[in-house]
Design brief:
There is one protein chain. This protein is 46% helix and 9% strand. With 301 residues, it is of the alpha/beta class. A six-stranded mixed beta sheet has the order 5-2-1-6-7-8. The protein has a two-stranded antiparallel ribbon with strand order 3-4. It is elongated. The mean pLDDT is 95.
Length: 301
């Protein structure tokens, strides 16, 4: 089970009321994340579980390809490292607490310098040698769905408790494209939340129709460049006008699948806290009693 951790703790922060620790710090996202992990482990009993982390939420190599990528979320640009993302102060203060609590539990947290959590997920889901459930509220990861490899998405767009199990049939029914076509579909359609403009004048229905006819983006671009193809004049012009965007956007949208990351036993779900003393101290300091107790019992099975 691969967790898109930021997707989950943002949801916990915005979806639950303020809960104050003994020193007055809001810890609603910490408590919510622990509760989500407990619920998912109780329901699915994974042998391995990873909190996948954004070591760089806006990698420079993606921005170099497409400068609009997540640009609207930048608070401050940092030439020597990751840009500063717009995150509410009461949530930002909770992120180090989450890291400490997860470490005390011994739950693996995995990131990669210069890459997003999506790339960590893409790598660990590829060639895992076992079924994989990816927990996320990010539709971009639908590109990983693969029935043959046993990779599905537990989509939390409607909430963790109301998550949907996304397989190839689900993607096809929802978007009229195969899961293997989803990255190309997203490139054509665009996504304002990621600063991905898409092809002007091409929405979901048109994107799906074009991919049904031409298979993938290279096939579609080739058809647009071929005067003898049966691509209609309107879509042909739109694809040709977006040539520069279509040259770079697929590399921005596609998640990495080949990072050098730990695998195997290093990612096993612990059956007991790795550092009980640290966990006890953190629980008392931040007032995390009930969610910590629940997760301890859940891990013990």
């Amino acid at each position: 089970m691969l967790l898109d951790t930021a997707s989950m703790y943002f949801r916990a922060f915005f979806g639950s009321p303020e809960i104050l620790s003994p020193d007055g710090t809001n810890v609603n996202a910490v408590r919510g994340l622990l509760g989500y992990i407990s619920s998912l482990v109780e329901q699915y009993r994974p042998s391995h579980l990873v909190c996948c982390w954004d070591d760089d939420w806006r990698p420079a190599w993606r921005v170099e390809l497409l400068p609009t990528y997540k640009a609207h979320r930048v608070v401050a640009e940092v030439p020597s490292g990751p840009d500063v993302e717009e995150v509410p102060d009461p949530l930002e203060a909770q992120v180090p607490i989450m890291r400490e609590v997860l470490a005390a539990f011994g739950i693996p947290v995995v990131g990669a310098p210069g890459y997003e959590a999506d790339d960590v997920i893409g790598t660990l889901a590829t060639g895992a040698g076992m079924p994989v459930d990816v927990v996320t509220g990010d539709r971009d990861l639908f590109q990983l769905v693969d029935d043959a490899a046993g990779v599905r998405i537990l989509y939390i767009g409607k909430g963790v408790g109301r998550h949907e199990r996304v397989d190839e049939a689900w993607v096809l029914a929802k978007y009229a494209v195969a899961a293997s076509q989803y990255a190309d579909f997203a490139t054509l359609r665009g996504d304002p939340s990621d600063g991905l403009p898409g092809v002007k004048g091409v929405g979901e229905k048109t994107a799906a129709t074009l991919l049904q006819r031409f298979g993938d983006l290279p096939g579609l671009v080739a058809a647009a460049d071929d005067p003898t193809s049966d691509l209609a004049p309107g879509p042909r012009l739109k694809i040709k006008e977006a040539a520069d965007y279509l040259l770079v956007a697929p590399r921005v949208v596609a998640v990495a699948r080949d990072l050098d990351l730990p695998r195997g036993d290093a990612l096993a779900l612990p059956s007991a806290p790795a550092d009980p003393d640290a966990l006890e101290e953190l629980t008392e300091r931040w007032g995390l009693g009930s969610p910590v107790e629940r997760l301890v019992k859940t891990l013990a099975g």
